[in-house]
Amino acid sequence: MTTLSVLIVDDELGMRLGAERSLLDYFFKLDKFDDEINFKTTLVENGNDAIKILAEKNTDIILLDYKLPDILGLDILNKIKTEKYDLLTIMITAYASLDVAISATKSGAFDFLAKPFTPEELRNTVKKAAEHIYLNRKASKLEEEKKKIRFQFISVLAHELKSPLSAVENYLLLMKDKISGDNISSYENMIGRSIKRIDGMRKLIIDLLDLTRLESGAKNRVFEELSIYEIVNDAVEGVMLTAKEKNITINFNCEKNFMFYAVKDEIEIIINNLLTNAVKYNKENGSVDLNIFTDNDNVRIVCKDTGIGMTKEETSRLFNEFVRIKNEKTKNILGSGLGLSILKRIINLYDGVINVDSEPDIGTTFDIILKKQ
Amino acid sequence: MSDNKKTILIVEDDIDFLEQTSLILKSGGYNVISASNEKDAEKIISNDKYDLAILDLMLDNDDSGFVLSHKIKKINKCIPVILVTAVTKETGFYFDSPNNKQSWIKADVILNKDIRYEQLKGEIERLLKGE
To answer: pLDDT averaged over chain A?
Structure first.
């Protein structure tokens, strides 16, 4: 329940009490937001009292008589405008003339009520104003939240880019000082680490570009009939070298003539992402099973590894941006923290679903369905 | 190993920072022993001899450094502890000097990342002299 404050400004006592009576028991539902709105009222008989109440800044709607004993209703309207009070004004006039309407609207009045009016008319006008103010506030709150998220994203990103840079810079400074003597081979570890950190940084930038492209709306998406087998085959070749280092076996199962109508880059990113993760977070002598099959015209991709796995809590955080599961087992594995949020976004483009099943030290299975477009 | 060489314990999970700090301290004439997680650090704390400890605040937990520092001081309260943290930069939260208000922090010096190595070396020398 949201309660809005209505300030009723009129020099006739009967008017004030009548308006209050019409509003006090009145409420209406906002189905879209699963909320109800009702009202509380404050009554004043002249303009100066109205200005005092307005200055307290808790008025949402003002019912303002055009003719007041001390100052003009229009002057109050101007005051509301210059002070930028967050409220809506409904003007009450005895003689509904066009001139009055025009000048009040120019000064920022939201609506009119011409005396005499029925309780029904009053409620409808107030309801319209209440809906308007409610929606506006919801929208600006959302905008505020979006800004915050964007800001958070940028500051984490800056940090993620800065830390490899400082690591490499510090190695270079140490080398410049010849901290380990004149023999270049004493610097192998420093050089190796520097290359690794720069490589990680480049991958982050590539992921970031993918993400921005997906975010900026999927314009220029070029659909074509794709041979899934070829894409998988290329991707498997791509991770083979890393897999061999840890003696990891990669098995894949995919119909040779399986075609799917999709955007090539997107499918490549999905398959590459799954395979890279399955190898990267695997154990020595582990295995990766990638199965791809049709499921009522849709594609189903199941990638199962015998890797380090994750706890339930870790799995639940997996798709957030820049989330990298940090523990003893992953501390030497580099990653941008963006791979899976990219994956999820692409899957959404195909109205698909992704399920993750994981158990620590046993392995992880990603199960993806992409709908035929 | 000469007898007058002092030994410094570094506990840090950022392997690059650990590597770089070790190199600098070794070239400055110190012995270095290190750990990259809380558990390994605890083993060293209870079994090995060292003259000063440099601890990263956030390891396995957000307050690992405080916990380790507390344990070190419990065994030998004369061993100087330097806490290293990026918390101030990331959250704006400032730890006051332990000499003043924050007596619950059992550390002698708190340094904010990114650390200037000159400053770190200066602090180490000062603390080892017992100033």
So the answer is: 89
**A232 falls in which pLDDT band (50, 70, 90)?**
very high
Contacts with B62 from chain A: Cβ below 8 Å: none
The arithmetic mean of pLDDT across residues B90-103, rounded, is 54
Interchain proximity B24–A171, CB inside 8 Å: no
How does residue A150 score in pLDDT terms, banded at 50, 70 and 90? confident
- Beta pairing, strands A353-359 & A363-370: antiparallel
* Measured CA distances, B109 to A74, B74, B93, B97 (Å): 65, 17, 16, 7
- The residues of A whose Cβ lies within 8 A of any Cβ of B are 159, 166-167, 170-171, 174, 179-180, 189-190, 193, 197, 327-328, 331-332
Q: List CB contacts (< 8 A) between B24 and chain A.
A: 174, 179
Task: Enumerate the residues of chain A whose CB falls inside 8 A of the CB of residue B29.
Answer: none
Helix (H), strand (E) at residue A13 = helix A13-24
ipTM above 0.90, yes or no: no
Long-range contacts of B29-32 (CB under 8 A, 24+ apart): B29/B5, B30/B5, B30/B6, B30/B124, B31/B1, B31/B5, B31/B6, B31/B7, B32/B7, B32/B8
How close does chain A come to B85, measured CA to CA in Å? 14
pTM for the structure as a whole: 0.67
Helix (H) or strand (E) holding A223: strand A223-227
Strand partners for A298: A295
Average pLDDT (B14-30) is: 93
Asked if B13's CB is within 8 angstroms of A166's CB, the reply is no
Q: What is the 3-state secondary structure (H, E, C) of A128-169?
A: HHHHHHHHHHHHHHHHHHHHHHHHHHHHHHHHHHHHHHHHHH
Residue-wise pLDDT tens digits, B37-73: 889 999 999 999 999 999 998 887 888 888 999 999 9
